[in-house]
Design a protein that fits this description.
Largest sheet: 3 strands, antiparallel
Distance between the termini: 77 Å
Helix content: 55-70%
Radius of gyration: 29 Å
Strand order of the largest sheet: 1-2-3
Length: 612
């Protein structure tokens, strides 16, 4: 690579001196692009951090596999989903996401020329992990996203949904980014995204602080997962109603009279006669036990026919478009007539009459044999390690003693928050174990408490001291349990606890900036990260009240954008029918042949037959 002192490179360079961070992008004779944003050490640091952030997908993979590892088909599907969302998110970010995020001052709708390759890779890992988070919602559900839906949602999240929020909080041309206060003035950039960045004057002092992505990554993915779970709940409700209607239709044909008595001679006079009440009477020589057997046979026949009817009316090609029901023999999960393996709970679930067990007994069951602790523990430890790259790497620099102190504070706060959140999770799990008199402690919920604390500290880690990081970790564990309780009350099936871990704890992390953030550390952080001459944040952030209001506004914007955009995407995918377009790869060829190739071959063969 040529030296940046080459005159031709400077002439072909893109000057970002008016932006913050300030740097120049150079184009070499060979077409490579690079900038003076990174020193040699900082470029190496950012690349290593980006690789580790990309490795977070391995942690998510192990956590999801922990719920389905008894079923090879389901495990294969989880692995396929990780491959697919990685590839789709890369394509989406390459084509649109990098430009939409406002990185390098890009104003283009498609991939711009003024890009820095290291910065591109770093920002891509954040977008890709946002798309990965959502898939954990449906790991243990019989309803699955089809291949097309997996590709579409990962593509759109990395191309538009995450980059839009990243633009607002991290870009120098973002509407609420602290980087727009370069050289002591507020930047107003006129570009193709002017409608995103031009707000009236009163909003000039509003700043969203989210250092490494508690909101822009985790909260966005968590609330997106909640939307997906709610759509599946509605689909499950419709399926239960349909099954109950089918059951009522068959009930009259198999109903056994409850008015039969041995003391009624009239009732024994005619074999199989019909009473005034319209119910079938049993003959006199039939014993009580044979009556019970008849009733059992009738109910068994009704259940089989109802199941068959439900299978016909709710087969994967017709149910929920791209969010489809997958039979029990294909993936882990109950069959079409059962909920949690119990056929009798279909109508109860449809009408909300199912008697719920106690919350702690539901959250901390005595027997959690369906979850493999070793896979979950491995996934959590991988995520714990890579979270250090996620947060420390966001500095994108290791040059100078000031950056060393900043990195140290971030790492210290992460350790303190994660460990205090984990220890509170251990005490709650021990209490639940003693309460239920179980022999075992639920380690998976402890792991989720640790992850929730790490998610929360992500947005606030450089803005506070280590004592306040304790509050962040403990509060994250409590917010996690609030999120799980909300899913319990609303009967939401969220296998990997995506909403409590990422949605609720990400929201808690943004709130912590508001009432725990220290304005002197906030200013110091951006003065160190910004490469321009001078950055002056608005004086309103010195007021804890204003800072808290700004963070509430950030929560509102991210929540509304996540629910609205993800809700629209998943609702469209749920409504669009793609008959026979494969639930997943193992059945792709079979379904394609059944629905498309076979009919064509049948017509061709019938036409080629000689006449009589």
């Amino acid at each position: 690579m040529a030296d940046i002192s080459d005159v031709s490179l400077v002439l072909n360079g893109f000057n970002r001196s008016s932006f913050c961070p300030s740097y120049t992008i150079f184009v070499g004779p060979d077409g490579d692009r690079y900038s003076d944003k990174y020193s040699d050490a900082s470029a190496t640091w950012t690349m290593v951090a980006s690789i580790l952030i990309f490795f977070m997908k391995t942690g998510f993979l192990f956590i999801e596999v922990a719920f389905v590892s008894d079923n090879h088909q389901a495990t294969r599907r989880v692995i396929l989903a990780k491959y697919l969302d990685t590839c789709a998110s890369a394509i989406g970010f390459y084509l649109f996401g990098y430009a939409v995020s406002g990185a390098a001052g890009s104003t283009r709708a498609v991939l711009g020329e003024e890009q820095d390759y290291i910065e591109w890779f770093f920002k891509f890992t954040f977008a890709s992990n946002t798309a990965t988070i959502l898939h954990g919602t449906l790991v243990g559900e019989p309803r699955k996203l089809r291949m097309l839906a997996l590709f579409v949602y990962a593509f759109l999240i990395s191309a538009f949904i995450h980059p839009f929020i990243a633009r607002q909080v991290w870009s120098p041309v973002g509407s609420f980014s602290p980087y727009r206060y370069c050289n002591g003035t507020l930047n107003r950039v006129t570009n193709s995204f002017e409608f995103l960045d031009s707000f009236p004057g009163p909003y000039d002092d509003v700043v969203f602080f989210d250092f490494a992505g508690s909101g822009a990554v985790h909260m966005l993915g968590g609330f997106g997962g909640l939307v997906l779970a709610l759509i599946c709940k509605y689909d499950r409700f419709k399926m239960g109603q349909s099954m109950e209607r089918a059951a009522k239709k068959h009930h009259a044909e198999y109903q056994v009279s409850n008015s039969f008595t041995l003391d009624d001679p009239a009732s024994m006079s005619t074999r199989g006669s019909v009473s005034k009440r319209g119910s079938t009477k049993l003959p006199s020589n039939r014993s009580k036990s044979s009556s019970v057997r008849t009733d059992s046979m009738a109910m068994s026949t009704m259940t089989k026919e109802t199941t068959a009817s439900a299978d016909r009316s709710h087969s994967p090609p017709q149910l929920g478009g791209q969010i489809s029901y997958v039979p029990a023999d294909s993936v882990t999960g109950p069959g079409p007539m059962s909920i949690n393996g119990n056929p009798d709970t279909v109508s109860q679930a449809a009408h909300g009459d199912e008697e719920q067990e106690d919350f702690l007994d539901w959250m901390y069951p005595k027997d959690a044999s369906g979850e493999h602790m070793e896979f979950a523990a491995l996934g959590v430890l991988i995520l714990w390690m890579t979270f250090f790259a996620f947060n420390c790497g966001t500095t994108e620099s290791v040059s100078g003693k000031v950056h060393h102190a900043l990195l140290g504070r971030i790492a210290l706060n992460m350790v303190v928050s994660g460990c205090f959140g984990g220890i509170v999770g251990i005490f709650i799990a021990l209490f639940a174990q003693l309460r239920s008199r179980s022999k075992y402690i639920n380690t998976n919920e402890i792991a989720n408490c640790i992850l929730g604390a790490l998610v929360a500290i992500t947005g606030v880690c450089p803005y506070i001291d280590s004592q306040r990081a304790i509050v962040v970790g403990v509060g994250a564990t409590l917010f996690y349990h609030l999120g799980v309780h909300a899913e319990y009350r609303w009967d939401i099936r969220d296998t990997a606890r995506v909403f409590p871990v990422h949605g609720m704890c990400g929201m808690w992390g943004l709130l912590c900036v508001g009432f725990l953030g220290q304005s002197n550390l906030i200013r110091q952080t951006y003065e160190n990260l910004c490469l321009c001459v001078y950055i002056k944040l608005p004086e309103t952030i010195d007021s804890q009240g204003y800072l808290f209001l700004y963070q509430l506004a950030a929560i509102g914007v991210i929540m509304a954008w996540s629910v609205g955009s993800c809700g629209f995407v998943f609702l469209v995918l749920w409504l669009i029918p793609m008959q026979g377009f494969a639930n997943f790869v193992d059945f792709a060829v079979v379904d394609f042949i059944d629905y498309y190739v076979a009919p064509v071959l049948t017509v061709l063969l019938s036409c080629s037959k000689p006449g009589p």
